[in-house]
Write the structure tokens for this entry.
Amino acid sequence: MKKKLIAGNWKMNGNLAANEALLKGLLTGVGQDACQVAVCVPSVYLAQCQTLLAGSVIELGAQDVSAHESGAYTGEIASAMLKEFGARFVIVGHSERRQYHAETDELVAAKAQRVLSSGITPIVCVGETLAEREAGKTEEVVKRQLAAVIHTNGHCISEVVVAYEPVWAIGTGLSATAEQAQQVHAVLRAQLKAATPNADRIKLLYGGSMNAANAKSLLAQPDIDGGLIGGAALKAQDFLTIIAAAS
Ligand code: 13P
């Protein structure tokens, strides 16, 4: 069976002291036989976290990246730069980027392509808003978002991680039920199967108020291969409980 992946998305949280305390807490509690574990930190803290995590089983990730290779793009960070600081993963297309920074499906697909070409694994986020769910458009929306990434990345699609994050479940404490999540994951798996013979290898994560209490039932679903965790990834004990549920 493929190992599950539990990835923390710290979002715009942390400081030098808090990061060190959190990572030390995780390193004390995580066993060698744990599932795959990653923390996606604010880019300015990559160097700090790279040092703290050196030689450990916890991998490092970033939360966003430029679609461009290099050049006159003030404020942006290139994928090759993230790679230099040990990033193994980069989240692309998080709903907060789509919502607050007007990122389109095409831009997200281009970012995924850039990340892949620098040898990093993109964690591509898809998910519907509450209005879209209530209008019965969940499948249509997630399929459209994933289709753009498949279209741009061709056979390399088997190298991505996909995270289903219903927007209404993010930061609200209102997780999708295990059944609701599995239903969408099955749709995404079928879409990936039509695109690549290696679809079963692709990790499909669930994100949106996953916590120490609900992780086990979500992770027991056949098409849920891990989690992308926001709030609960900022508390060492909660994150360790989720890791244990996946291991
Ligand atoms: P929460 O776990 O805080 O709901 O955040 C989920 C998320 O957006 C992870 O990327």
Q: What stands out?
A: The chain has a mean pLDDT of 97. DSSP finds ten helices and eight strands in the chain. The two ends are 11 Å apart (CA to CA). Residues 9, 94, 165, 170-171, 207-210, 228-232 surround 1,3-dihydroxyacetonephosphate (CB under 6 Å).
